[in-house]
Amino acid sequence: MPGGANLTKCHLLRLNVGFLLNKDVGYSRNFNFEESSLLIGDDLLISDLRGSARLSRTGQGIYIKGRLQGNIDLDCVRCLSDFKQILSAELDEHFDYPSARDSDPHLTISDDAILDLSPILREIFLLDVPIQPICRVECTGLCQVCGEIITEEHQSHPEEEIDPRLAVLKTLLS
Ligand SMILES: [Zn+2]
Ligand SMILES: [Zn+2]
User: Is the entire prediction scored with pTM above 0.70?
Assistant: First the structure.
């Protein structure tokens, strides 16, 4: 497919499958995906997206099976720092062509033979986003006294520092 590499680069998730639709049932071809940063839909920014998928011609359209993964920026609910979470998506879908009346609009191939993976991929990736993101399982969060992230170097505080208000009270009392 001359110029195919460029086409894939510009519209990474919009695959022109015209050539595949002209093949016999059973014909298949692999697609590789690699992009440093990609906005899927209006709101899902994925970095380091990579993966591959096999597209096969079926009697009713194209069957796609593959695996993609990428990173998303999230804020840790414990220590509040931002971190990259790996998201992965297993693709195992059938795209109808021509689209039947009862086809899922996310899983149809347009009349000009464009198979757009964005809607389904966005859906699968979003399911993989944790509701309570944690930067790492052992994240201990923020110190309640000084507000710093608790690391191995973090020293526990002398008792009088635990609550500054209490310390003031102590001074007043003595
Ligand atoms: Zn954390
Ligand atoms: Zn502290």
Answer: yes
